[in-house]
Design goal:
By secondary structure, the protein is mainly α. It has one domain (2-24, 33-67). Helix content is 41%, strand content 10%. It has helices at 2-12, 38-51, 57-65; strands spanning 13-14, 17-18, 36-37, 77-78. A two-stranded antiparallel sheet has the order 1-2. It has a two-stranded antiparallel sheet with strand order 3-4. α2 (38-51) packs antiparallel against α3 (57-65).
Length: 82
């Protein structure tokens, strides 16, 4: 679990959020640069908690929560810079 989390952090973490997969290569027919996937970001919060990395949980949990749309809902995908 620790190795998987480290690999995710290294390859999929962008602007404090987690992408669903690496979109730098064009292998699935979708345009490059897909935004972060909030379900993956919240899943990483669970991973941190299970690893006992409780000091990292609040900031990593609060950041995605700070990105609701204009009606207060969290989208499936999100751009941390919006």
């Amino acid at each position: 679990m620790q190795g998987t989390a480290a690999a995710i952090e290294k390859t999929l973490r962008r602007d404090g959020l987690i992408a669903r997969y690496n979109t730098k290569s064009w292998v699935d027919g979708l345009p490059r640069g897909e935004r972060a996937f909030l379900a993956c970001s919240f899943g990483m919060v669970d991973n941190y908690a299970l690893q006992g990395r409780m000091d990292e949980v609040p900031s990593f949990f609060e950041h995605p929560l700070s990105l609701p749309n204009d009606v207060g809902l969290l989208a499936e995908k999100c751009d941390a810079k919006e």
